[in-house]
Amino acid sequence: MKAPCQFLLCFVLALLFTRASAQTGAAGFFNVKAYGAKGNGKVLDNQAIDRAITACAKSGGGTVYLPAGNYLCGSIHLKSNINLFIDAGATITGAPAALNAYDQAEPFTDTAYQDGGHTYFHNSLIWGEHLENVSITGRGRIDGGGLTSKDKEHMGDPTGGSIGTGDKAIAIKLSKNILIRDVTIFHGGHFAILLTGCNMVTLDNLTIDTNRDGIDIDCCINTVVSNCRVNSPNDDAICPKSSYALNRPFITENLSIVNCQVSGFKEGTLLDGTMVPAKAGWSNGRIKFGTESNGGFRNCVVSNCTFRSCNGLALEDVDGGIMENIIVSNITMMDINHYPIYVTLGRRNRGPKSTTRMGHVNNILISNILVTGADAMSGIQITGTPGYPVRNIKIQNISVQYKGGGTKEQGEKQFPELERGYPEPFLLGVNPAYGLFIRHAKDVALDHITFSTLKPDNRPAIVASDVDGLEIDHFKIPDVKGIKQLRTDKVTNLKIDNSPFVKE
After folding, report:
1. Is position 25 within any domain?
2. Which of 270, 285, 300 is where one domain is finished?
3. Which residues pair with 470 in a beta bridge?
4. pLDDT value for 116
5. 279 shares its domain with 301
6. 488 — pLDDT class (breaks 50, 70, 90)
7. Which residues contact 370 (CB under 8 A, 6 or more apart)?
8. 482: β partners
9. Are residues 248 and 321 in the same domain?
10. Cα–Cα dist 242/177, whole Å
């Protein structure tokens, strides 16, 4: 019996050592309850979590552990070399504004050429700056609770003012080697996740069901967003940007968005599984590059993604940056509001006059896209600006089912230029082409494209204006009696093959 007793004693000692390690921070493991966190959802726990983070960082790094419980919190301050691990059954809940538990928004020392959400970071639930090797992981949840979701720009003031108490769920700035994985974010405030000026970022297996933007990737390089589900009925789901928040143009490049799902269901209905479509407003649920684009976008891939009950894909370069070497492939879309695909070069040029020049859009490949239930308001739009065409655009293997129902009068109207306006198609009204509108472009290739309509549409399938170099091959569209399916104006070097209903 001696050996079993010795085994039992060793087991008990090992268990006690493990528990002591969890409580005291031995072996790089820091349980927030050892630092005063209650996890009862009634008292503020952010200071206790901060104590655990500070102890972890001082010891050289490790894991800050949140066991199951509800942690009511104001601002939590990240530090380098820590993994904030939110375990299954644990929730960080954003405190109500009345508790004054969030940090004040920091001063912004220059003119803000971007909205308040991109200007201020400290008034967030979880934030950090100038960090290295930071992770937020675990199967737990971040519930924004009392986080705010409006800024002055969206209330009519474009000056980018401070947006108040408790702004974002996670905000990380000027940091590198960032990992956010497995967590769920509900009601994330202005942005559920905002990354600005970061390098080597991985966002993986996240579930976000929120009231404004889901993920904003601003002025970041070497970023991978993978296997994420993002529902955002009132704004964009995944939104790369390159704003002037760093007081200079800074490009977003080497970005991959793969195997993700975006949607515009009513907030909370992704998480509860009912997936109730929200009414389409300004924007909802899409993947959008821009609008902030002072630096621009380069070497970016969007692949193997689904869109559901939301706006379509948008590539918007309007603030003087570049947009080049962009590949979009293997996308399915269902019940799409406003438009399925939107590529535009505008001249809003929001930035200092001394540094802001006209941008350019070049080398875009969009392929293998299947769309059903697309809005009758607008088809695919590819537009530059007078004197500044978008260049080398190729669209291939695209099938779009439109709702149809457009009138002949709508097809004959003159479509307004974007120029310096906000780049949102619905602001320009119904498009004269139900399928594809191209203006101010050079070297556009359309290959193996099929359009269909649920109801007859009396607008042209294609309207092209001020285009030099337009190749159309294997273009399949319905034949509508009395409607010319291709309308052109100032189109040179036009080549049409294997497209019986597409005629000049």
Report:
1. no
2. 285
3. 444, 494
4. 85
5. no
6. very high
7. 331, 332, 333, 399
8. none
9. no
10. 19
Which amino acid type is present at position 97?
Answer: A
Helix (H/G/I), strand (E/B), else coil: 3? helix
Does 333 share its domain with 252? no
The alpha carbon of residue 109 and the mean position of all alpha carbons in its chain are separated, in whole angstroms, by: 27
DSSP H or E run through 8 = helix 2-24
Domain-embedded: residue 268: yes
For 7, counting Cβ atoms within 10 Å of its Cβ (0-12 exposed, 13-18 middle, 19+ buried), the class is exposed
Q: 305 and 196, same structural domain?
A: no
CA 163 → CA 88, 148, 182, distances in Å?
32, 8, 29
Q: How far apart are CA 478 and CA 459, in angstroms?
A: 11
Contact 241, 194 (CB under 8 A): no
Note whether residue 337 is domain-resident.
Answer: yes
Edge-to-edge strand list for the sheet holding 126-129:
76-77, 126-129, 170-173, 191-196, 213-218, 238-241
% helix / strand / coil in the chain, to the nearest 5? 10, 45, 40
Closest CA relative to residue 77, chosen from 32, 120, 128: 128
Task: Give the SS3 label for residue 38.
Answer: coil
DSSP states along 52-85:
HHHHHHHTT-EEEEE-SEEEEES-EE--TTEEEE
Closest CA to 215 of 299, 373, 205: 205
CATH number, domain with residue 175: 2.160.20.10
Instruction: Look at residue 199 and give its three-state secondary structure.
Output: strand
The reply to whether 294 and 379 lie within a common domain is: yes
What's the number of domains the chain is made of? 2
Domain span at 137:
31-285
The gap from C-alpha 316 to its chain's centroid, in whole angstroms, comes to 13
Domain boundary among 285, 302, 320: 285
To the nearest 10°, the Cα dihedral for 341, 451, 488, 378? -40
Residue 81 burial (CB count, 10 A): 17
Copy the structure tokens of residue 309.
């009950």
Same domain for 345 and 469? yes
Quick check: is 13 in a domain? no
What's CA 70's distance to the chain center, in Å?
A: 28
Cα dihedral value 379, 382, 383, 384, nearest 10 = 170
The answer to whether the CB of 144 falls within 8 A of the CB of 190 is no
State whether 429 and 463 are in the same domain.
yes
Burial of 113 (0-12, 13-18, 19+ CB in 10 A): buried
Q: Per mean pLDDT, which range of 10-19, 83-92, 179-188, 353-362 is the poorest?
A: 10-19
Tell me if 407 sits within 8 A of 458, measured CB to CB. Answer: yes
Q: pTM (2 decimals)?
A: 0.92
Listed range (8-12, 24-28, 231-235) with the worst mean pLDDT: 8-12
**What's the pLDDT band for 107 if we cut at 50, 70, 90?**
confident
Shared-domain flag, residues 212 and 299: no
The position carrying tokens 């600005």 is: 196
